[in-house]
User: Fold these one by one.
Assistant:
Number 1:
Amino acid sequence: MPKIELNMITQRSIEEGAAMEKGKTNPDYFDACSICEMHPEDMKRAGIWKNTNVRVTSECGTVIVKAIMPTQYVPPGLAHIRQGVWANQVVPPRTQSTGTPQYSGFPVTIEPAPAERLKTALELVQGAVGLWKGGQ
Amino acid sequence: MPKLIKGVGCPYCGSSCDDIEVLVSDDETKILEVHNACIIGTNLFHHANDPTRPKLPRMRQPDGSMKEVTYPEAIDWMAKTMLKAKKPLIYGFGSTNCEGMSAVARIAEKAGAVLDNCATICHGPSFLAIFDNGYPSCTLGEAKNRADVVVFWGCNPMHAHPRHTSRYSIFPRGYFTQKGQMQRTVLCIDPRETDTAKLADHHLMIDQGHDYELFDAFRTVLRGFDIPETVAGIPREKIKEAAEIMKKAKFCMIFFGMGCTHTDGRNHNIDAAISLTRDLNEHTKCSIMAMRGHYNIAGPGQVWSWQFGFPYCIDLTKGSHAHMNPGETSSVDLAMRDEVDCFVNVGTDAGAHFPIQAVQHLKKHPFIAIDPNFCMASEIADLHIPVRIAGVDEPGVVYRMDNVPIQFRAVIKGLPGVPSDEELFDMVYERMCELTNTQPVWLAAKADRKYPESPAVI
Ligand code: SF4
């Protein structure tokens, strides 16, 4: 499978804010945040079809998200996952001694994973600390 | 008859809009309509009606499930856990009122805890730069009334502060800006063509992570020196043109956000931004402001600075004095080094917004979540204590992003039996004093403090 290296940023969006205020287990929050925006050229290079799942891997973790066409234009080489549970699976906790993690500007590898399943927010967070009781 | 309450504050983003109108049911228990707010504010108020809102604390059982317990049980457990811990960490406070922040500080002192707020993962680097370089800022009212050039650097208010542009920065008609948007030139510096960039007259699409170079290039141009053909992906001519616009402004206003603080350079980017503001004041009037995320995230900076002398990352474990050193006493660094042995999450969601590895480290020890609703932190916590929602069913003072205090009001009656943050922390403090055989001196100091009858007249 082809892979691409992109520069990842994770920032706010109004969809995330509006959904978060309905609750983080709300399906709107899942739809708003479990996505990755990138330039169509980059998708083509990695053999990614729009609206299919991809695996994003950083120096400290990996997450499955859905690749979509940018809602706000992203130049080639840059990728954006909205701030939230999915983004924070791959955000490096290194802080350059300021206390603030590297939420933006860290290298990731993105590869197609059309057969993989998106996990819910609860599954990701509870799963990470060994509390997830739901199915696989 | 449903009642229309005017002049309500919205407890969501740093714009802290105080012109919201809320229609509430006769018995003041349900929110029926929300006027003037953006979609986020509207959802927030309506969510308070959710009948599944927790009314009792829940404690995690050995089998991993949660069981409801009474408030006295929860308070007792929290007090004992915090006293037992060698170095507890109390973190959060993006979304609560100043009264709660002040009350929690007494617990932190008693427990010898580290006290930190959400700034640590958002505008913390801005604080560092402000300590080093000063903060030539103003209020949002001045921005509205005077600014004819507005720069959005690494921030996207159309998404993060939806009414910021209509209330303060782009559209409103002010005293010297009576033509509103027509009179303002808007610059946006962002690696993406965000919805704010689409509104701007000039979008400088910077190479992500190269903010420092571009700030420096602006300063160089302003001082009359030449710069390379392209800097940070922007052609020289474009930079010169933008610098000229700022220089020719009657009043230039720079807003900066997470695009500068979350990326390489951190505080150094802000340092350069402040120096650019200073340089621009050689030519015209220029001011700078951090786009603070939450409606009262400026609050803990104010309250704790009065109490301890520091706005965030306050280490009280020494028992004799407060000590602040971000990188050492900041939440994520403490978590990653496994230095804390109890975590209290208040009015924020570390479960969703910390890098997941930091959450995994924190979860090795007792984990307490204090939040009106279910969130990721509450769903992994050992103890979840629900409280009232500041700005919805609990009044209080909040600090807007420009550090202007606003008295927020309550629009509905709180859930019966559910305390406010302040009441909860006072009860925990009292219990800690009982357990350690000490006098609850701070409670006596505010025994006769009452909320004003009608906050609007203040
Ligand atoms: S802009 Fe911010 S403060 Fe104003 S209504 Fe929207 S969320 Fe609330």
Number 2:
Amino acid sequence: MQDRLQALKEEALLKIQQASDLKELQDIKVSYLGKRGPITEVLKGMGKLSPEERPVVGAYANEIRDAITSALESKISELEQAVIEEKLKKESIDVTLPGRPVRKGNAHPLTAVIEEIEDLFLTMGFTVAEGPEVETDYYNFEALNLPKGHPARDMQDSFFITEDILLRTQTSPVQARTMEKHHGRGPVKIVSPGKVYRRDDDDATHSHQFMQIEGLVVDENVRLSDLKGVLETFAKKMFGEERKIRLRPSFFPFTEPSVEMDISCFKCGGKGCSICKHTGWIEILGAGMVHPNVLEMAGFDSKKYTGFAFGMGPERIAMLKYGIDDIRHFYTNDLRFLKQFKKA
Amino acid sequence: MLVSYNWLKDYVNLDLSAAELADKITKSGIEVEIVESLNKGITGVVVGHVLECVQHPNADKLRVCKVDLGEEAPVQIVCGAPNVAAGQKVPVAKVGAVLPGNFKIKKAKLRGEASNGMICSLTELGVEGKLVPKEYSSGIFVMPSDAEIGSDALSYLNLDDYVLELGLTPNRADCLNMLGVAYEVAAILNEELRLPEVQVQTSGEKASDYVSVTVDAKEDNPYYGAMIIKNITIAPSPLWMQNRLVAAGIRPINNVVDITNYVLLEYGQPLHAFDYDRLGSKEILVRRAKAGEEMVTLDDAKRKLGANHLVITNGKEPVAVAGVMGGATSEVQDDTTTVLLEAAYFEGIRVRSASKDLGLRSEASSRYEKGIDRNRVYDAAYRAASLMAQYAGGEVAQGIVEAGERLVPEGKAEVTQTRINTLLGTEIEGEQISDILKRLRFEFDVHGENYIVTVPSRRPDITIDADLVEEVGRIYGYDRIPTTYLLTEGRPGGLSPYQAARRKVMRYMEGTGLYQAVTYALTTPEKSNAFTFSQEQENVHSIKVSHPMSEERSTLRSTLVPQLLEVLKHNHHRSIDDVGIFEISSVFFAHEQSLSVLPEEKTYLSGALTGLWSIHPWQGEKKKIDFFVVKGILEGLFEELGLHSRISFESESLPGMHPGRTAVVKLDSIVVGFIGQIHPGTQKEWDLNESYVFELDLDQLLGASVEPTVYQTLPRFPSITRDIAVVVDQNLPAGDLNTVIHEAGGELLKESSLFDLYEGERMEEGKKSLAFSLKYYDPERTLTDEEVTKAHENILRSLEERFGASLRK
Ligand SMILES: [Zn+2]
């Protein structure tokens, strides 16, 4: 009896191994393990066996059932896997085809530059102050130590609307307005970005409308050396850690002493190239200690308070940073231009 | 100001190169913009002596010269200049020489005659044509007869010089002359200063016997002085003087004119030489011109004068426009023998109005405009007179005939050592301060730590302590000022809520795929208000600048849309037709015809879109921008700002917009902007493709108070979703249906969303079907079917009652 069972087992396992699809396996299962299958048939003859033999044969029969079942299961999973693989193979795609484009615009390069500068000064404890683009003569000129008839008014030919109202020629009126709001008490620490207007013919380096960003600190004991510290921090963050700065005496009506700041050329490192006009230095901004007249006019005691101010042109900085050769690009908004500043 | 390096050596020892000097001047406060070498790469040019000069046998216009170059034998040179002649000393470029532009001189044969070198004109030596004296303008330059044969011609012509171009700020008009620059350079280099020594031998005659001076406009002309120089012989000025004028950019004319220009450059004092015999009287009267008065100026142009111009007259007629230009009749000519030399102080503002009105700017007028040193008038006059005696054979009559006050008191300014050091952040010793003031040649007294400085009249820019701080600081050296960090209290900085929100809006807009544009605020009057969305906007006045540069940039805008359409057009003309842009900028509204107060300024957020929105070419997807693409962008924005539940869109007709595809945007009940398609007519006018725009009052949006976010518990009970499809009139807005659905749905209805719109053949004429998906939910319990059915039926009934809606079958 055991021999017959043994033969059935070998026969079943062989069939399982040769089976090529799930249906065939199902048939094998039914034919060998079903109620009318040969194993059941064999076991029906158990009654003829001695009581000693019965458990032995019974155990053997179960062993064979288990072996066939497990062989069936592993063959089924093997075949299923093959089916899945076959299916997945058919589903495969060309991964080198381009992806679905995600629409993503970006900031205007001037905004990018302004925000970068704002953020830098925000970390130094500054706030951002803004003011009107149409200004009074008082805030645009007089409060900044530029009385009527001052020769430096010639330097900035302006768009007047009435005798007393004009498009601001600089963002400095925001400084005057902010100081006034402090009613003679420090500290004042602001940066003020915005659009300004001058009667210039538009060409590659001039624009009748352009941006400025200025900074102002007023407090007790503010020194030119502090201005140097702030500007050095700015230059390194904006143009690289290796930058050196140089202050040169200059002239602005609203500061005294006045300085211009140069940075060591980021292109050639100071050896001289076309960007720095072979001087090794690039002029970046104007600055100085707030003129006592400006402090007094805004209600600050110039004996007690001192301050510094600085101002720069985001266009110039963007042009230097990105190598842009024509200021008009900023205002033409050619999409091929705007798209270049994704990571700005 | 052009500063000759060689000339400067007259006044200050210069033991450094021109480039090193320029660097030091720049670092001390006056920017040297260019250091120009006059040499321009020239080598091998020597003084030659023309021994013989004969006609070229084969060419009419050429001569064959034998020229002694100080070598063993003279060389033969063929020369085409008409003015070459035997006996002349001339600059000769030898074989092997290099001229400007890397032009090498080689042995040549010209029409059969050997030519071993080249006799040079000044332009061939790199001098600008307009600076070459007239007599040499079409030929070779003839050098003084005492020039040494064979020696370097460049030093004779001052072409070994360097010219420093100073970029002067308005406060430093003192450096518009060589002496001023010498004071500055002597201070920077800590060197001695040598001022010119002026000695005038006067004749027995008195100037006052020749002329009287009256000033009828004291405010315009505080001082007028006249000298008389007789027996002048007009001739070329000495070569060294011509060279210096050329280096400074002035063309040599004759000895008298050159001397006035030379002293102008040296002292900064404009001078004018009249031909005394052609003056027409023995009188100088300075007065305002009469309206309509005319005179012919030196340049032979007839000038119409006005009451705001100052003129020099001979008592009857104008002979010069004060400080601007002399008259033709009294001009110094070749036969002039007696010169009346004018040395005066005219107020800048008067000179400026004449120079502006007549369109004449000169070395003299620009110096008067920027301010000259009044205390130097005398010195300059005597300097010029002495040069005329020396180089024009003149005899100087005694005295200056004058009117007005010549000298003005010098100013005072005070500063303390503490102030200097606290403002600069330095620790400069008292001794150093004194030393610096001495180097600047300022007179001063020290009282304790207080410095009381007498400001020289050449430096009127110095009036207060801060000015002295700057003087001390810049001579001390800004590179020696330490770097320190602000001691101000550490209050945190930060953006205002408005600024932070505005940045958020920008980031959102960029995230939707729009590019930020920045456009001009000035535009044409028509474009400035071409798009409006509220009554208020229409009731404002346009704001024009008083002197626009062009009509195109004459008026401040009250809408950003036209400039954004310009951007679409610019791109369209370059075949860039899929564009989405936005701008955040100010717009301006005047509430009065002529501004007495500042106009209202608002910040608008506007956008313009055209072409394709989403594109996936190889999957065959191309979605055009339409109204709903743009609306979706705005809806996302309102959600971002927490305003979406308070926003509504209402169909509206607006100027320039498609009447059926435009809506105003309302926040609560206030119109805050609009959105829509550009009217096909407008689109054609602008030469655009189908375009959509929006404009929003950003200040209103960001100014709206927003409820803080409160967390809503996540649903603990299942919700029930039921759909409803109704047939309504085709022109009924879906938004109206939605409002009623929410009203009728009561507490249980939490969400409704439109998922189908059908208008077509299977629909009755004039009808459409809308299908909504409605979500019912109670946070406290599980809803029963009956409750939901009741609410759902209530909705349907309300829709029937309000809109005659019927359930779609
Ligand atoms: Zn460089």
